[in-house]
Amino acid sequence: MKLNPYLNFDGNCEEAFNHYKNVFRTGFAGNGVMKFSDVPGEGMPPMSDDIKNRVMHVSIQLGDQMLMGSDTMPGMGKPFSSGINNYISVHPDSREEADRIFAELSEGGEVEMPMEDQFWGDYFGSLIDRFGTPWMINFNEAYN
Can you give the residue range of the structural domain that contains 23? Predict the structure, then answer.
């Protein structure tokens, strides 16, 4: 299992991650910078051009770990708040372990996205546990 920090931004995620990749002398991992406009039509409500241009997901490799991030989407989920704009992203070794971790962490908490297969190929869900800690549970067979 791997744990990775996941940062949220209010429209400047791409700028921040371009800076971080320069500081750490690395490049974007995976699919590069994915924007909300990359989400298939049935996956999202109608969006303004500003929201379409926000980052849905980006990551950079730091040694054997990843630093991940995205922009928030105004009107969905919790409003952006600087200083508490992060998640812990857990990458279990199996789909069953992902389900178990998600179920146990979500007890008494708030499910943001239930565990489901996603268009980017992962089995993913997010929640805020009963202690106020935000979690992302992410399984991809190809990475295990």
Answer: 1-77
